[in-house]
Amino acid sequence: MDNQDNTNTNYSNHNNYGNDYNNNDKSDNNKNNNNKDDKELKHEKLLDKEYQKKIVERKKRFLEELKTEDSVFDSRTLLTLHSLLNGKHIDELLGVINSGKESVVFSAVKENKYFAVKVYRVSTCDFKTMWKYIQGDPRFHLRKSSTRQIIHAWVEKEYRNLKRANYYVNSPKALLRRENVLLMELIHDNNGAPSPRLKDVNVDYAKFYEIIKEDLKTLYNDAQLVHGDLSEYNILVKDDKPVYIDFSQGVIVQHPLSKSLLIRDIKNITNFFKRKGIECDYKELYRYITGEELRPIDEELANNY
Ligand SMILES: Nc1ncnc2c1ncn2[C@@H]1O[C@H](COP(=O)(O)OP(=O)(O)O)[C@@H](O)[C@H]1O
Ligand SMILES: [Mg+2]
After folding, report:
1. Compositionally biased, Basic and acidic residues: which spans (predicted)?
2. What's the average model confidence in pLDDT over 284-302?
């Protein structure tokens, strides 16, 4: 869910860690060089050991910082993050990309691959809304359940929506979900820094509107998915193309709320592009995506969301 006041924070750490990481890459390559004499090899191994030690220390420090600075993370969440760091998926959490009311997104790295780790804050999630979205989804069969179960279903929903979306449009690959944590591919530039949001950069708006129009049509008709929280906040820009993120509120077209959410999505999109000087109309976009006229009754219902 989008907290429109979110600020991207703390990212300055990223490059420091990134550089260290590259140094290690170099030493790894050198290790394979058969022409090295023993002394050099020993030195390399020592460096490698030191590097490993540094990583372990950093992991510890990071988790300590999380514990003290971000007291909203309960111990179970810390354990889940710990298990991700100790497992085969990520080596290091690099820093916070974004800290919102309901979730915190970290960047992480393993070898030369970057990841985004989205952690839902168990204590501040809006369970009532979550429940409403999950309940009508035929993919989930939750009866009355605990808040934790609702959050798990929520993360599972985002994971499955991302998988589905990724097949048809530009979006991060979902890799793993565990408790209230989702691991996905990081959308990033050449230096490993996260890509900016559409809201924060200048693009060729006419071109972007056309791409987004096609993508929404594909999402609706082929992926049979409605994003549910689409706006310039949840579209990143990479290689001069849109990349769609934050599918947590996404529903399949069979969901009773899908029409209302689609109408809200396309109104957000056309409002944004109108502000950027592009001639567009939500009714026309609705017709283009669904092949139907927008009925006043559906529009009326959508005003409740
Ligand atoms: N896969 C990703 N790659 C790069 N940045 C990401 C990724 N996922 C999230 N972000 C960044 O984190 C922010 C918050 O993530 P989002 O999924 O939109 O959560 P929220 O529900 O808090 O809005 C995004 O606006 C974006 O800047
Ligand atoms: Mg968002």
Report:
1. 23-44
2. 94
